[in-house]
What we know:
The protein has helices at about 35-50, 80-100, 130-135, and strands at about 10, 15, 20-25, 55-60, 70-75, 120-125. By secondary structure, the protein is an alpha+beta fold. It has a single domain, classed as Alpha-Beta Plaits, CATH 3.30.70.1290. Strands 4-5-3-6 form a four-stranded antiparallel sheet, sandwiched between helices. The protein has a two-stranded antiparallel ribbon with strand order 1-2. The model has no long low-confidence stretch (mean pLDDT about 90).
Amino acid sequence: xxxxxxxxxxxRHCKYQSGHHFVWIPFKRQKIFRSAQIIEATKxxxxxxxxxxxxxxxxxxxxxTLMDHVHVFVSFPPRMSAAQAVNIMKGYSSRHLRxxxxxxxxxxxxxxxxxxxxxxxxxxxxxAQSVKRYIEECQG
Length: 140
């Protein structure tokens, strides 16, 4: 994770500098973030998914007050849509968290951990530090 915001990057055909703030919640807004183990595992799996798919994680935090939000601030190539990026992170983390914590499978009848909906906001480099600071301070 970068400390200094969003870096200018290049693909074969373009230069880009964009930040994307995603927030998602567990299915039926279950308060699953009650222990440090599940919080750290969530961060680990989101970061693993991102790194293996050319998504740079700038900041990540779990809301420790409400215990039901994941905030992620990322940058990804323009060939990837926001929906693809968030689905990669949510899908990978859901599969691995349900394997590691079997009690998550018992919360409801569906084969999913996260709600289908999510929040997506974009930033330029000027406000990147503000979003990053917000995410890091949202833990309560």
